Protein: Transcriptional regulator
Organism: Companilactobacillus halodurans
Amino acid sequence: MKLIVAIIQDKDSQQLQTQLVKDGFRATQLPSTGGFLKAGNCTFLIGVDDEKVDDALEIIKKTCHTRSQYVTPTFLMPEAASSMGEPIEVQVGGATCFIVPVDKFVRF
Ligand code: 2BA
C-alpha cells in the first residue's frame, strides 16, 4: 500500500474529491498553506493499493490544473515595500505529489 500526499490548488479540490469518490478511492482533505505564496492550498491524503497508484495519479493529473499567479516582490519581501517592483509571474502547479510506502494500515 502507498500513501499519496497531493498538494493541489483550492480551486480543484471539489472536482478531485468528487472524482476520487466516484472511482472508489478513499481520501482525506486537509487545508494547507504554501510556504512561498503563503496562500491557502489543499492537501489530499489518499491511501491506495500499489496497483491503483497510477489510476489515482491519473485522476489527480486530469482534475488539477496549472495556473499563473502574479505576485509583487514586496509580497515576498515586505521589508522592501518602499521600492515596489513589477509583479512577477509564478506558475503554480496542478499538483505536487509524494508517494510514500505504508508499513501498516488498520481501520477500526
Ligand atoms: P507555494 O510554496 O506557495 O509555492 C507556489 C508556487 O511558487 C510554486 O508552485 C512555484 O511555482 C513557486 N515557488 C515556490 N517556491 C519558490 C521559490 N523558492 N522560488 C521561486 N518560486 C517558487 P509549485 O511548485 O507547483 O508548488 C505548489 C505548492 O505545492 C507550494 O505552494 C507548496 O505548498 C507545495 N510544494 C511544492 N513543492 C513542495 C515540496 N518540495 N515540499 C512540500 N511542499 C511543496
User: Anything to note?
Assistant: The helical segments are 10-22, 53-63, 73-76. The chain has a mean pLDDT of 92.
